[in-house]
Amino acid sequence: MAPCSMKTGTSEDEIQRDYRTYRAEKTYAVSEGKWYFEFELVSDGPMRVGWARVDCKPGSQLGSDEYSWAFDGFNTEKIHQNYRESYGQGRNLRIGDVIGCFLDVTNKSMSEYYRP
C-alpha cells in the first residue's frame, strides 16, 4: 500500500524524481478482504492517492505501472499503468480536506471520497 505521492517537478524526469511516496511496510500487505484509510490534507496541489502491490518499485509514481492504482482529486483522474481517465468535474482540494480510499480485494474494486 502506498498512500500518497506528490508532484513537485515540471519535466517528466523531474516529476518522476521529485515524487514523495509514503507507503506501509511490506509486513502490512493485504491479500483479501476490504481495507480503508483516510488522511487530512496538510498541503494542497496535485497528489495521487491509492494502492500498490508489494512488488511496486519504491519511488515509483502511484498509478505509473501495472502494480499500482491511483486517484488524483486535484486533476480528477484515475491512473493505472500511466493511463489517465477523467472521472468528473472535481474541484481543487484544499488544506483540511479529508481524503479516504477504499479497497475491496475480493471484488477487485477501489473507490475514494473527499470531504471538505
Automatic annotation (TrEMBL):
InterPro entries: B30.2/SPRY (IPR001870), Ryanodine_IP3_receptor (IPR015925), SPRY_dom (IPR003877)
Annotated GO biological process: release of sequestered calcium ion into cytosol by sarcoplasmic reticulum; striated muscle contraction
Molecular-function GO terms, alphabetical: ryanodine-sensitive calcium-release channel activity
Domain named B30.2/SPRY: residues: 1-116
Pfam families xrefs: SPRY
Gene Ontology CC: one annotated term: calcium channel complex
Protein name as annotated: B30.2/SPRY domain-containing protein
